[in-house]
Amino acid sequence: MPRARGLAKKDFLKQVEEQAAQADQRTANDTTLIGKEYFRNLGINRGFYSKKRQGVADVDPKVMEPFNPIPGKPPRRVVIDRQRKLFASLDIEELLAELGIDYRNPQKNPADWLPLEPFDDTEYDCRLPEEWIEFGYDIDGNFTPIPGKGLRMNKDGTGYWCPVLIQSYDNERQMYTGYWDEEGQVYCELTRINLLFNSEDPRIFAQRVF
Question: How far apart are CA 176 and CA 145, in angstroms?
Fold first, then answer.
């Protein structure tokens, strides 16, 4: 490589590093941003997030990218893959904890734990209920459940988020039905405010609960 080209490359890399450092500093100064430490789970980089699971619907995150590539911009498939990786790396319980919400340790004051359903803002939805369920059907009409995480409540009022597989939506009761994953298909019913789909942004969902 010619010396001039090598120096130009070093200058470019230095500029990129400086821009990245400035971006990190802006993020560190933003106290309103949750989920600052992206990709906390190091296993994400080993690719487990993108492994296809037999018998479960594989739903892509919703992205506003054209299907035909634009010169100078990453292809739609790459953007979707990055979103998958990001969403899989974030833990909903950690994000809610950053906002002061901890279902494992509920407040003693009942006024702090009113039902959230009457106050739920549907503008946070990136897809309609019917659209989520439609992703479970293949071209032959066969259905596979849609993966997500649901809030499972205990009798003592505590709760925790665990994997769930959604099978249907009851429009009259506005309730998603399915079963808790890896627990012998125990039936469950969840309202939207208590259901986080794997292919939606956990940071936006945390703001919805907050």
Answer: 11
